[in-house]
Design brief:
With about 270 residues, the chain is of the alpha/beta class. The chain is built from 14 helices and 5 strands. It is about 50% helix and about 10% strand.
Length: about 270
């Protein structure tokens, strides 16, 4: 669902015109922030969307901006546009927004997608970067998109990942992967990022973040931190309770024995 912010800020009724336009007159523009159409389509592919439109019709129009040559740049609704083209339709209902500049067109596209779990995180990051490049102010980007400054900063760090790790940021791995890889980008550079990622793979993401943070960017510390993590040192619950600390091996063994010898409750 498109958030209310989208309607309140970007769809004032006097500026809105909807009409059927020829599909061949529309180009997917740089304003459209959804680049990876495969992300998040495990349950709803383009074929599924095409079938739905064939059965029910297009329920929501796309959004376009008129070009100087009389054709149109697509701002929002890329999957709907491609699904209609796949069906062989000649025309498509479209909202024409000639009152927005290029930055606002990018923001509109981002807002349509940003609250959806099926948008590739790197696509989000690039869109945030484009808006930030315009304003050079995180607070302004947050106000325009309805997303917190901390979230925007976290996504922007993803652009510092190696291409190999950016490729791992598919939504099939879940949005929580953003936390791990953004911390990785903050802490390591270049190939060290990939080595560190291999070291922490297999742990819960909260533990991955803790290992990366405690490493301080030193790859040599990762093996020891992994051992501590395997012993439960970074258990999420105990960390929240202030008990997340390194315990001497001798004390660990004593506690384990005490727990093993503790009588079962009646």
């Amino acid at each position: 669902m498109i958030p209310n912010l989208f309607f309140m800020r970007y769809l004032p009724l006097p500026a809105m015109e909807v009409k059927d336009i020829v599909l061949n007159d529309i180009d997917v523009s740089e304003f459209n922030t959804r680049k990876d159409l495969g992300a998040g389509t495990e349950d709803a592919s383009l074929d599924d969307l095409s079938n739905s439109i064939h059965q029910q019709g297009l329920l929501n129009p796309i959004m376009v901006k008129t070009r100087t040559d009389g054709k149109y740049d697509l701002i929002a609704g890329q999957r709907r546009f491609l699904a209609c083209r796949k069906l062989g339709l000649k025309t498509i209902p479209a909202i024409i927004r000639d009152d927005v500049n290029d930055t606002d067109a990018t923001i509109i596209s981002l807002i349509e997608n940003v609250h959806r779990a099926d948008m590739n995180p790197v696509d989000k990051a690039r869109a945030y970067q484009q808006i930030y490049d315009k304003y050079r102010d995180y607070g302004k980007v947050a106000k325009e998109t309805g997303v917190s400054v901390s979230t925007i900063r976290r996504y922007l760090t993803l652009l510092g990942l190696t291409p190999t790790l950016q490729a791992k940021l598919t939504t099939s791995e879940g949005p929580a992967g953003v936390g791990t890889l953004s911390k990785l980008a903050e802490t390591f550079e270049g190939e060290d990022q990939e080595i560190a990622f291999e070291e922490v793979e297999g742990f819960k993401q909260t533990v991955q973040v803790e290992i990366i943070k405690r490493s301080g960017g030193d790859l040599a510390k990762l093996s020891e931190l992994k051992e501590e993590a395997l012993d439960g040192a970074f258990n999420t619950k105990t960390c929240r309770e202030g008990l997340c600390f390194v315990m001497p091996e001798e004390l660990k063994d004593r506690i384990k024995k005490m727990l093993e010898n503790e009588p079962s409750p009646p």
